[in-house]
Design brief:
binds zinc ion, 34% helix, 34% strand, alpha+beta, ten-stranded mixed sheet, 3 domains
């Protein structure tokens, strides 16, 4: 198998394949055939979720725009600049993680707080997904994998994929940079981190944590189609990401339109007025030195108004709003 890596020619047309030694799968620039370059990967190891074509993705894009209360009004001023589809390689597996944790939680009885130390054993099954690349600085990938796990569209093994479809689909494959053995190592670390994260969100403090992966499904490599639409509005560029199996949007950046900006401005004014109003109420109802029962709710009200003011101010100054679908 290793001499295949050395020769690097297309197994269909014989043209030279421009691939780095790290490339595992490469589409021939000349005939479009899919070549498995790596010796550690078999055709059976890879599955593909086929993609709809560009026109379906664009139709969903415009449906999203016309169905959105903010964008509807400016739809005729939006211009699509580019549309590009790519296959993103993911390694998917399911792991069972077993371990032990010692943690503390706070228990309240009346107005007393008690810190209690507890110990637990656990066995947890989780889905793990990792991008088959080292540089993951790409927007939309996490959303893509999550949407895949949530909707489970049909995937075909590469060996059963219609070659004509493959050649006609024109989607590029983002190159894969690690093979199954490396993927297994990362999946193992990730799944333990993931389970630890679940505990961290659940308890106050972790004093001890030890876990092992006791079972791992053989990682499968799956190519998921991701479409990127770049569009323009008043001289600025915005992106939208769509998954390719149904063409629906998964991540959508929207220009901040004036009406929404005014909404945020309203929130800011309201929070300032509300704060002032509460201040006035405090001075009216409370004699100096009195610490009435109203203080709690009033402070809570101030905190809520503070958050409203902060969020509104942040929204007001930003030019783009990203919506997860
Ligand atoms: Zn070829």
């Amino acid at each position: 198998m290793s001499d295949e890596v050395a020769s690097l020619v297309c197994n269909v047309c014989g043209a030279e394949l421009k691939a780095t030694p790290e490339t595992l799968v490469k589409v021939c620039d000349y005939c479009g055939a899919l070549n498995i370059v790596s010796g550690v990967l078999e055709r059976e190891d890879i599955s593909v979720v086929p993609s709809v074509g560009e026109e379906v993705v664009l139709r969903k894009f415009w449906e999203r725009v016309r169905g959105d209360s903010d964008l509807r009004g400016i739809a005729d001023k939006l211009k699509v600049v580019s549309v590009e589809g790519r296959f993103i390689p993911f390694w998917l597996s399911r792991c069972k993680v077993r371990g032990e944790v010692i943690y503390t939680v706070k228990e309240y009885s009346g107005n007393k707080v008690r810190v209690v130390r507890k110990k637990a054993r656990f066995l947890k099954s989780i889905n793990v997904k990792i991008v088959g690349r080292r540089q993951v600085a790409h927007v939309g990938l996490d959303e893509l994998a999550s949407r895949y796990l949530a909707t489970r569209p049909k995937a075909s093994p590469l060996s059963k994929l219609d070659e004509d479809w493959w050649r006609g689909n024109r989607l590029k494959i983002l190159s894969m940079e690690f093979d199954r053995l490396e993927a297994e190592k990362i999946i193992m670390e990730d799944s333990i981190d993931h389970v630890r994260g679940i505990w961290e969100r659940r308890v106050d403090r972790i004093e001890f944590f030890a876990a092992d992966v006791v079972e791992m499904e053989k990682p499968k490599l799956i190519l998921l189609p991701l479409w990127e639409i770049i569009y323009e509005f008043r001289g600025s560029l915005y992106f939208a990401y769509h998954e390719g199996w149904s063409g629906r949007p998964i991540l959508f950046a929207e220009p901040m339109i004036t009406r929404r900006r005014m909404m945020y401005l309203g929130g800011m004014i309201l929070s300032v007025l509300g704060g002032a109003g509460i201040g006035a109420v405090i001075s009216l109802i409370m004699e100096p030195g009195e610490s009435g029962d109203l203080l709690g709710p009033i402070l809570l009200g101030l905190a809520v108004l503070g958050i409203l003011g902060y969020k509104s101010a942040k929204g007001f100054v930003s030019d783009v709003r990203v919506e997860r679908q």
